[in-house]
Amino acid sequence: MSFALDRQRFIIMGIVSQTSVVCLLLGLSSAKDVPAFYIFGDSLVDVGNNFYMKTLATPLFPNGIDFGNGYRVPSGRYSNARLVPDIIGQEVGLKNFPPPCLAPTTVGDVLLNGVNYASSGSGILKATGESYGDHISLENQISYFEKTRKDIISNIGIQAAKKLLREAIYILFIGTNDVRDISNVVDGGAALDTIISSLRSQLTRLYKLGARKFVVGNCGPYGCIPFTRDEYGVKDGCVSAANQRAQRFEDAVNACCNVVGAHGGIIPCTTISQVCSDRTKNVFWDPIHLTESANLIAAKHLLDGDLNYTSPMNLRQLVNT
């Protein structure tokens, strides 16, 4: 398999490779309609929570340039358009994009369609992302979900709420920022153990709150993104040291929205950035995040992929379980 011909395939596999699609069923009936998506994570899936906080991690325009919000109106997403949860939600019949939990309009019946708790810059550990300013750690994201659960029970009653929550899909894309923060730690193995233990604890907490269907994204190839390659001055290939704690893939695709850096990886996509004219040809939107075109490929593999991409089943099978 030629590296030159398969660079893009490898980076997309890094997003969905070994995604854990876990269905924890206790005598549940089949449900083909997805009542809700509850989404947790970092900037890979954040849709605007950071707009409501004091933080450097805010996706200003031209982020969202192709989303359709209007001229120079950002979408809250670190991409030119839709993210993976947006795409798969539409594909399985979700009525609306789950809104950010901090939006004042995310109340009442809106909660029944799903909520997005993700926060750019955040991680599994509470300390991850503190350098950006305010953020919502995974633990605090689940605390917000706990409040959502109480509000749903108050709205539709305990039995209907339990049914909705057990049939909902719980998406977690988080961990890359934790990997970044420990990339230079001497005892990386011990640090990883702490991260994994914390993730296990938070997943158990969600289970106790009624969650049964989980989609947990693997940590992508951090050493291959434009940010890391420019940070380490790598012209070709990936930064192997940064990848040892993530996944070992190879990629040489530049950022579409860029300011400086050999790969456009020094400064995040912002108002002074230059944007490539044809976003459909780029895998990377900015130094870290993917274009909608790349997200579409990742979403396709997550929805209908085989065991090379999702385990023990794909998302469409999970929905129909």
From TrEMBL:
Keywords: Hydrolase, Lipid degradation, Lipid metabolism. The keyword Amino-acid biosynthesis does not apply. The keyword tRNA-binding does not apply. GO terms for molecular function: hydrolase activity, acting on ester bonds. Pfam families: Lipase_GDSL. It comes from the Eukaryota. GO terms for biological process: lipid catabolic process. InterPro entries: GDSL (IPR001087), GDSL_Est/Lipase (IPR051058), SGNH_hydro_sf (IPR036514). Belongs to the 'GDSL' lipolytic enzyme family. This is GDSL-motif lipase/hydrolase family protein. It comes from Populus trichocarpa.
